[in-house]
Specification:
The structure holds two protein chains of two kinds.
Chain A: H1 2-38, E1 42-44, E2 48-50, H2 56-63, H3 65-98, H4 103-116, H5 119-130, H6 135-142, H7 156-180, H8 184-192, H9 197-225, H10 229-235, H11 242-251, H12 256-285
Antiparallel strand pairs in A: 1-2
Helix pairs in contact in A: 2-12, 3-7, 3-9, 4-7, 5-10, 7-9, 7-10, 8-9, 9-12, 11-12
Chain B: E1 4-13, E2 16-26, E3 31-35, H1 42-50, E4 57-62, E5 65-66, E6 77-80, H2 92-102, H3 107-120, H4 136-148, E7 154-158, H5 166-183, E8 186-191, H6 194-200, E9 203-208, E10 211-216, H7 218-223, H8 228-233, E11 238-248, E12 251-256, E13 259-264, E14 273-278, E15 284-286, E16 293-302, E17 306-313, E18 316-323, E19 335-339, E20 345-349
Helix pairs in contact in B: 2-3, 2-4, 3-4
Classes of the chains: A mainly alpha, B alpha+beta.
Amino acid sequence: MAEDTARSRILPPYLLSAPALLLYLGLFMAPLVMTLMLSFNSFDFYKGILPGFGFGNYLEVVTDEYFHEVFLRTFGISLAVTLLCALLGTPEAYILHRMRNPWKSLFMLAILGPLLISVVVRTLGWALLIGDSGVLNEALLGAGLIDEPIHLIFTTTGVIIALVHVLIPFMVLSVWASLQKLDPAVEQAGLSLGASQFTVLRRIVVPQVMPGILSGCLIVFALTASAFATPAILGGRRIKVVATTAYDEYLNTLNWPLGAAIAVLLLIANVIIIATYNKVIEKKYAQAFQ
Amino acid sequence: MSFLRLEGLVKRYGDFTAVDNVELSVEKGEFVSLLGPSGCGKTTTLQMIAGFEEPTQGRVVIDGKDMTAVKASQRGIGIVFQSYALFPHMPVAGNVSFGLEMRKVSKEERKRRVTETLELVHLQDFAHRFPRELSGGQRQRVALARALVIQPEVLLLDEPLSALDAKIREDMQIELRSIQQKVGTTTILVTHDQSEAMSMSDRVAVMNEGRLAQVGAPYDAYEYPEDLFVSNFLGKSNLLEGKVTARDGDGIKVRVGEVELEALDGNVALDEIVNVSVRPEKLHLTAPKDGKLKGQVETRIFLGNHWVYQVQSPIGQLLVTQQNTGQESAREGEEVGVSWSMDGIRVLAGESSDG
């Protein structure tokens, strides 16, 4: 009897989470493990993928300067996009927070807009906008403000602009969630003590929404580092990032094992960066936030 | 010339008038309470004094200077908020020191004044704690220290004690009052709690529906309410509708139901429909034959230091309170007499009793 009740208490949670767990195991864990296994195989131009176990692919990535450049560029872009999102997204979230309906809902929709549009369509839209004979350059040339087109497409700058556009909603939502918890009287308290509006923001609001900014940074960084479509379309052949490089190995060179090794290394690098970041942040803010 | 003056303050939100022509003069060092039910406009009035809300009409004058157009950060007003609104990411000392930093006070001076003010509120040992590590009462004191350290010309208290439990609230009332008297800051307290307002202030300003109903010393406002609302809002009252049947010399007679009551002259005319207000503690129970009225006890409640009775009488149900003198008191169902002295009765001009 006692055993029965014990079992009936343990079973339901497992049964309830089983569908999600199976989905996770089948669609995420299995491919991930297969990719990992694949990365230890080797490749020959004439014979294709050769089964076996070796670190050859990893050695190639770690020693080849070409891959160094790709990895550095990826993390450089990620860092720039993260900083820009934090700098633009935090004030954006604050302004949104202070707005009243119907403007609030309207602007919220505008901010979330990029997430509602297919990534390929949105990126092609940017290509039309910033291309050498795109809307922006045509307009500036027509107005006589520039003599020759500004090169944005197929440059790092172009990729960064488009990525900031699509990822800023994550930052805004994250900061906005923190702002909801802010006591509005705290800002009034700051003002009544003689602080200017700017000082109130800098000394009172920003420190309190720091957890939101930091978790927003984390999401944006992780998503940029693994972004594919935007760098592929706006970066072209010249601005290669890790994700597009892995794609090329798979589909152009057909060197699947090398592609797999690149993908695994990106995952590992991402996990290390995020884990370190979390640790540092937790240590720094353990006192003020709980 | 009074120190703080509200001159014809009006605040409208669309069609709704939150504050309607409020005139109030506060002397330097005085403690005045804005008292009223929620939605009576007291908080809006406070927000206009603080500079967080712009008046639709009227002026806020502090020490002879028109402050109406001055920014909140330039007014030099200390505010204790209902939620305390402490800066959660700063320790107690940082919270208190913030206003001094904004005033560019030197570091040593800052340290000295923070220590001094924390001593005033008995928190000198808590300077390095964070707000979340403090109890409600302690947070309250930090909020007070933070507002006082800048030596404000006016101190505004926005329902400062409403988040505390009853026992601490009473202690804090006494402490707040004594601190205010020590530093002598002109203080405005906003509250819906009449006992809080009466226990702490020099004068209470009772507000109702955006208007000031009555301004006066707590005793005067309680004993001589000018209208039904004040009579009902400050303490409890037995309100009886009647008609003035006679006026002569100092006294009048008011007929309530089948009974004629004698009262001191009020500001009423012969034959006017009036309201008679009698405080429960002005009535006392006697033996049935000794009272001015006969009645029957319906219910009684024991509250430690006093009893509360509901007595059914020819003029309606009456609320009577009696000191607990240690003797057995009238029981439920018992026949009693109800008596009072004439000066305990107030006659108010009769409007419809909406209060």
